[in-house]
Design a protein that fits this description.
This protein is of the alpha+beta class and about 250 residues long. Helices cover about 50% and strands about 20% of the residues. The strands form 2 sheets. The protein has a 5-stranded antiparallel beta sheet, sandwiched between helices.
């Protein structure tokens, strides 16, 4: 009996892709594991890489400002170091210009800027492969970057897989963490003093008018601050916001 031939998706056999996804979606039911970076552990079973960063950011002043995420195989100070050179990292604008498409760049292809090349050398980056997509219904941009110590360590198969898998990774992250946004201490540092006051008062159960009266502001101004709080914290309800504020107070 002849063996059935399965079609391929972007060069990846459909049967293989289906098997991967069957192993991915059950992670959504385990938010504790997701919070510990289980998505990157899962990804490492299917793509060979030396380091990875999966997270979310806000787009500000022409570049990304990280707001949370997980790394694997990278130094603890990796994200902070990247933030110092983010304004000259050519991968970000290239990936954002084509959301969902992987952008690969070898270290020797970086612009001849000492700080950018020093960053790559310090962290042993020979090649980076990144894909960025907007998170539906939110101000966030979700990004996945894989790193190899070799200049050509991440080939066409790796690029095809990250492009195919990224929407699923974002969806699983959302399914598993829809009631647990960013960790409270990191999240609340994003707010201005007045935004933090608005969040605290709403978390105590006050209405728009009560908050406005307490702060000496108009209800319209309070609504504006609340919209900013929702966007910065990545929440969609007062319940989620109250949990974050309550966690910090505790």
């Amino acid at each position: 009996m002849a063996q059935q031939a399965f079609p391929s998706v972007s060069g990846v056999p459909a049967e293989q892709l289906g098997a991967m996804l069957l192993g991915l979606y059950p992670l959504a039911a385990e938010p504790e594991r997701l919070g510990a970076g289980a998505l990157l552990d899962w990804l490492a079973r299917h793509i060979a890489f030396d380091g990875a960063w999966f997270g979310r950011s806000l787009f500000e002043s022409g570049t990304l400002r990280p707001q949370g995420g997980h790394t694997r195989g990278l130094a603890p100070d990796f994200v902070n170091d990247w933030c110092r050179v983010r304004h000259i990292d050519p991968v970000v604008p290239a990936a954002m210009a084509q959301p969902g498409h992987g952008v690969a760049l070898a270290a020797h292809e970086l612009p001849p800027v000492a700080s950018m090349r020093a960053f790559a050398a310090d962290h042993g980056i020979g090649q980076a492969l990144s894909v960025i997509v907007p998170a539906p219904g939110s101000p966030w941009w979700m990004h996945l970057s894989l790193y190899s110590r070799e200049a050509a360590g991440l080939g066409a198969r790796a690029q095809a897989l990250v492009e195919l898998l990224m929407p699923h990774l974002v969806l699983v992250q959302g399914l598993g963490l829809h009631e647990t946004p960013m960790a409270a201490p990191a999240a609340l540092t994003l707010l201005s003093r007045r935004e933090a006051e608005v969040a605290r008062l709403f978390a105590q159960g006050q209405s728009y008018k009560m908050v406005a009266r307490t702060l000496g502001s108009s209800p319209a101004t309070v609504r504006h601050h609340l919209r900013q709080v929702y966007a910065k914290l990545g929440v969609t309800s007062k319940v989620q916001m109250a949990r974050l504020v309550g966690a910090q107070a505790a």
